[in-house]
Design goal:
The protein is an alpha+beta fold. The protein has four helices and ten strands. Strands 1-2-9-4-7 form a five-stranded antiparallel sheet, with no helix packed on it. It has a five-stranded antiparallel sheet with strand order 6-5-8-3-10. Bound molecules: 2-acetamido-2-deoxy-beta-D-glucopyranose.
Length: 214
């Protein structure tokens, strides 16, 4: 019985440890943008040609333009911007929010996210999976930290009087993002409106309107 539990524990910890970006098998694998090799991740540059700038990104002190319908802007620092992140399982983003701006409900298919408020005041939340669909929400001040578990739908809203700024770290070099409204109403080609009418229990006109916006 004891042996069985040890084996089960080992199998569980193994399956958890491979549930996110894989551990590197070498010091680094700086992404080679020229490579035509298709693999899970990006091919490595020749380590001899790697430079300090491959591990660096500049400009995250700069506020992004939030003059858009949602009043927020995300500046990513993933493997696409910082090739040295390839195979390392981490990345980060800066998020700027205008007063009343939101980062709309979205998920990251490959990463948990830990967000810290540098300026302002944010209402944040996520929703657990069905059937509970429990909404976990909190108002955060400068210096507060909040975690969004991998895969769950989450959002932020600026509830302060001025601009807000957050930095969020993500547990993938390429966390991905699924913005709920864009995925459901803005896919190309569209999801059949008869599907959305039944799924959302609304009139055809509402679906047509939402599909025209997204
Ligand atoms: C911010 O973006 C808006 C909308 O695209 C644009 O009209 C405006 O000029 C931009 N502001 C700055 C400072 O770049």
């Amino acid at each position: 019985m004891g042996t069985y539990n040890i084996i089960l524990g080992f199998l569980l910890s193994f399956s958890l440890s491979v549930a996110t970006d894989h551990s590197p098998l070498q010091d680094f694998c700086v992404a080679d943008p020229e490579s035509r090799v298709l693999l899970n991740g990006l091919a490595c540059k020749d380590p001899k040609t790697v430079k300090a700038n491959d591990f660096s990104f500049g400009g995250l002190h700069l506020a992004a333009n939030t003059s858009n319908p949602i009043g927020s802007s995300v500046t990513p620092v993933t493997v696409s911007q910082l090739p040295g992140l390839n195979t390392l399982g981490i990345s980060l983003v800066r998020i700027d929010y205008a007063p009343s701006g939101i980062n709309p409900p979205h998920t990251h298919p490959r990463a948990s996210e830990i967000l810290t408020i540098l300026e302002g005041c944010l209402e944040v939340g996520f929703v657990t999976s069905s059937p509970e669909n429990r909404h976990i929400t909190k108002v955060l001040q400068k210096g507060d930290v909040f975690v969004f578990p991998i895969g769950l739908v989450h959002y932020q809203r600026n509830v302060g009087t001025g601009n807000a700024v957050a930095i969020a770290a993500l547990s993938s070099q390429n966390p991905g993002v699924v913005i709920i409204a864009s995925a459901v109403f803005g896919s190309r080609p569209s999801i059949g409106s008869e599907i959305l009418v039944k799924a959302l229990q609304v009139d055809q006109g509402v679906v047509n309107y939402l599909q025209s916006i997204f």
